[in-house]
Amino acid sequence: MVEENWDADFFSGVVNPSQLAPLIDALPGAFFFAKDRAGRFTAMNRAFMGALGIMNAEETLGKTDYDFFDHDLADAY
């Protein structure tokens, strides 16, 4: 039987979420981002930065989908 809370157990062992960044960056074709409750980007991987056409995450920190996407798409996101 698979433990139902495996993901909670896994993430409870992560001291700092940025420790996952190398793993997420190593996954080919995987886009990752995190936002705060106001919808502002707080983190993202290189693949997602490339899709946005930016070179470093600092260019996105504190910005929202409306800074990068058409208004209709940003509404959907």
Q: Would you kindly provide a written description of the structure presented here, covering whatever features stand out?
A:
This protein has 77 residues and is of the alpha+beta class. It is 34% helix and 9% strand. Strands 1-2 form a two-stranded antiparallel sheet. Strand 1 and strand 2 (41-44) form a beta hairpin. It is globular, with a radius of gyration of 15 Å.
Features:
two-stranded antiparallel ribbon, alpha+beta, 77 residues, single chain, 34% helix
Spatial strand arrangement across the major sheet:
1-2
Rg: 15 Å
Structural class: alpha+beta
Share in β-strands: 5-15%
Q: What sequence of helices (H) and strands (E) makes up the elements?
A: HHEEHH
Task: Write down how many β-strands occur, each being a DSSP E stretch of 2 or more residues.
Answer: 2
Q: Whole-Å distance between the termini? A: 36 Å
Low-confidence parts, pLDDT < 50 over ≥5 residues?
Answer: none
Proportion of helical residues: 25-40%
Shape: globular
For the sheet with most strands, the description reads:
2 strands, antiparallel
Helical stretch tally: 4
Oligomer: single chain
Averaged pLDDT, please?
81
